[in-house]
Every structure is written in structure tokens, then in C-alpha cells.
């Protein structure tokens, strides 16, 4: 019988022999029947442990296909799945454990020691046996608004927040994605996004499993391994963050390889440089950007790849079952071309932040979620994300969007990676500074970059400082970490004041 929380078992009845999951690292392949049997094994384990509806089950593990069985088993028992970022420090992990209060912690072998020190009953993933049969003997009644998973945000603006996603949140995101992006059982996706992140779980993995397709899971991203896997597993649609795309484009293998089964390459998690668009256009591959957040889907927009290539940076129109609006500082709807804050509405939204009523009230008002992102619509109604509201630079009273400056600088042949931030300035309020990773054979001089910027940017938008570093710091999913860059800028400016004339 179908339920909001038991659809994977229904899928196993419909297409039991179809391949559900493949693990690039181990070579394991699970049919939908095997996924259901493995899920039932975890259900029995949770039942034997006496876990009751609403209790939390934490997981500390590298990417592996077993994690989906745990996720679906939590759904079967009405438990809340809490995937933890294994890259965090012990103190950061302990904060999440203290905040979420899990009753059980599942872990892989590599994290056994860390799991043992967190003060939660812990069991190894590999110690849980499969069930002999998968129809569940005891069903737990769940409502659409019951929590299914809790994903902690990156905490770039303070302590991480537990984003509570209900069955409705997750399932409507999946259904909306299937309908809006025309997914079907023929689709196969390669996923290197971490499975403690909404991009790894909800962007494509769960929608494709709901549709009866195949999800191929990679562990640690390697560009050449990913390129080979795209073809070996006959993938059709895959999501990578911009830094992953750039890593693949930097290999000879990418340019030597055809991708006969790939319908489209997706980019998400951060604004995509124009150079990535150029590379996919030269290669003759279809490519487009998406936009999402843990609190909303993460999928919110749909755009045809041909339109995306013509309107670089556009994420398109709202999907079939959600709404978007852009409002100014006074709450008025913006006209085309005006920049305002992006708001989202739909059944895919999260229900609340765990143990944080104040943050929930600030984010959710009258059914709309305030994203904190700045956006604009063109005359056709296609949306462009301009940047984070908190990252907007105000210099001399002028609003400056880092993304615009970054897109300009990445167009210089010597710039490999770029990040632009604002730092405090006594005269201007904030000053624009750029961090650059240069191509070793073509390191640009500051004067060249200034001339390059002057061709397309107003003088107030041009960076006052250029800092050349070997590698830009990244977050756990490969996004450039601007919080760390702000700290670096502060230190570099301090050094410059002590030793004038030595900056880039």
C-alpha cells in the first residue's frame, strides 16, 4: 500500500529488477528489490533498538549506497535522519549531536573512533544484516508534515542550523523535479555531492529513485574518475558544483571524451563562471545552471539548456509546483530589471529550524521563505541570481554585486579562479578586493587586471586590491569559502601596512 513515507517499497514492487544504486568505489549494484531488502534490515534494527517515532538517527560516513537504505528505513519507522558532515571537527560534530539529540549513531569503519567519542550509542553500518523479506511486518503511521530528515546548514553566518524537512518537503521536491525536468526511469545520474548535503540527497538522487532510474554514487571527487564514470554508467543528467566542472574541463580526458548518453550537465551550489559555459558550448554539450537551498527543495527553477546558453547566468522560471517572487526593501514586488530579495513558496519548503523558533519566524512569513539572495527577472520572466544579500558590497554609497566583478575577471586569460569580497574601509565604508588563482604560465600583472576591468565595469566596482594565492579555500561541497577569505584579507592588509609595497 502506498504511503508518503513508504514509496520506495512501492517502487520495488513495480520495478524490482531495475538497477537502483551503483557504488563507483566498491562496484556494488543494488536492484530496487535489493534496496528494499536492505532497507527492511535497517528497519528491523531500529525496531529491535526500541527507537520510537520522532527520535533521531545520526549517520557519520563517507558516500556509500547503504546510506539510502538507512534514509528509507528512517522513513519506515517515522524516525528523523540526521546526516553529519564527516569533515567537521570533533567540537563541531559534538555541537550537532548536542543540538539534535540522536538516539543512535551509525558509522562507517573510517569514522569508528570519532563516532565512539560522541557519547551516542553507535553501531557500524556493516554490522546491520539484510532482512530475509522486505514487506514490513509493522508499519508506523506517519503524516505528510512529519519530519523525515534534518540537514545542518554550513554555518557560514554562525552556528549551523538544523533544517527540518518533512515527508511533504522531500516528496514534493522530488515530484516537482520529475515533472518539471521531465525525468523518467531511463535517467541515470552520477553524484559526487556529499550525502550529508541536500544537493547529494534531494537535487537528483531521490527524484530519480522515485522515477525508477539509477543513481551512481561516487566517494571522493576525482575529475578523471568522474569523466569515465559518466560514460561507463551511461548517465543522462548529473549535477556538479562549478569547481568540479572546472576540474573536469582542465583535463585532457574531458576534451578527448564524447558523452553519447548525457542529455545535460547541471551546475549548482554557487554562481558558475562564464568560462565554464564557453567550454561546454565549444564541446557541443548541453549545460545549464540551477538554484536551490537546503530550506527549499533544493530545486526551484526550470530552464531549457538552449535558453540557458543564450542567457548566461539565468536559472529560468519557477517549476511546476512552486512560486517565486522578488521584493524590494519595502516588500514591494520588483519590476523586470530591478534587483530585490528572492522569496520562494511551495510544499517543498522546510517546516522549521530545529530548536530555533526565532530563526524560523524570520525566514518564513505568510508562507514565503526569504532566501537572503538577490535576484532579478528579465522581460521574459527568467530569473538571474545576482548574489547573496549579505555579500553585497556597499562602497561609497554604491551597491556592488561581487558576482558581476567575478564574471568580469574570470574572462581574463590569466585568471583560473576568482573570488571577490568587501572588507571594511575607513574612507569608503567597504572596499572591493579580489582573490585570484592564476594560470602558472600566464600570471597577470595588477595593471593588466585593472585595464581589463575598466573595459566593462564602472570605476567604483573595480577591486582596490588583488591578492594572488595558490588555491582558494573551499567549503565541504566545493564552494569558495568567502568567510575564510575575509579573514585572510584582514591578515594580508595588516601585513601590507607593516611592509608597504609587497601586496599583489
UniProtKB/TrEMBL annotation:
SUPFAM superfamilies: Acetyl-CoA synthetase-like. Residues 404-479 form the AMP-binding enzyme C-terminal domain. The keyword Ligase applies. The keyword Ligase applies. Residues 10-354 form the AMP-dependent synthetase/ligase domain. It holds the Pfam family AMP-binding_C. Keywords: Ligase. PANTHER family: ACYL-COA SYNTHETASE, MEDIUM-CHAIN ACYL-COA LIGASE ACSF2, MITOCHONDRIAL. Belongs to the ATP-dependent AMP-binding enzyme family. This is Class I adenylate-forming enzyme family protein.
